[in-house]
Amino acid sequence: MGKMTSADISTVDAAAALEGWHRARTAYVTGTHGPLSLVFTHWGVAGEDAVAEETARADWPEHVIFSRLQRDNIDTGELEHGYRIWDTRSPAQQAFQGIGSYGYNPEWVIDAEFEYVDESRFMPFEHLRDAGATRGLPVSGDIVFTLNGVEHRLAAFDAGEQLQLVFADATSGSESYASGRFLFVPRPAVSADQTPGTRFPLTLDFNHAVVPPCGFSNQMNCPLPPASNRFTEAINAGEKKVIWADGFSL
């Protein structure tokens, strides 16, 4: 066997790190507040008070976990209160057998740029369980890169210190989750007085693409890929689909 090159060593190290990342992902999805544990989501009527925890828990076993959430009504913008019930003994937890994934693929580690547009820009994203309606999400810039000679301009919404990219590709619905996958990347630090059009370097590592929460629980409502985020190429990197025991489906 010939001597390993620095590129070979880098690939081996990256593959080993990815294995650790996959283990962490499994620990998360099977955890107390992981998506496999989510068995119920309730949203109240806009403008009404939140449901009392005692009332929400009434029809559930004592061991379940209760949490609150809120959002703006999709039509009026009024505040809606909601809650979730989490159960680590859920049918999905019991049927879960792992997350199918591709091996490490260095071809899908891509140098890109974040082109700042406007902190106050919101773009419409359709969500899986909103019957075709859209919700405005903050997209302060675009991710730009060239792939096979074609420039791509992706919409990734701001999620705190990260950018959340929702994408589909030629594997969606066959090898990978039908509704698309997520990729999180660190959001470049943009100062308040930054000039629109300024670009910041970033790396898209599709080896860290994940099955969205709605692939683990039908109580999740995930954003769907906009037209700009649908690749004709097969992105054979990252997670594929959830593996269930025979006979189980969400």
Helix and strand topology:
Blueprint: H1 6-29, E1 38-43, H2 53-57, E2 65-72, E3 79-86, H3 91-95, E4 96-101, E5 109-116, E6 122-126, E7 134-138, E8 141-147, E9 150-159, E10 162-167, E11 181-186, E12 199-205, E13 239-244
Antiparallel strand pairs: 1-3, 2-3, 4-13, 5-8, 5-12, 6-7, 8-9, 9-10, 10-11
Can you give a write-up of this model?
With 250 residues, this protein is mostly beta strands. The protein folds into 2 domains: 35-89, no CATH class; 96-244, no CATH class. Helix content is 14%, strand content 35%. It has 3 helices and 13 strands. The strands form 4 sheets. A 6-stranded antiparallel sheet has the order 11-10-9-8-5-12, with no helix packed on it. A 3-stranded antiparallel sheet has the order 1-3-2. The longest helix has 24 residues, at 6-29. It is globular and about 55 Å long. It starts with 5 loop residues before the first helix and ends in a 6-residue tail after the last strand. 25% of the residues are buried. The mean pLDDT is 93.
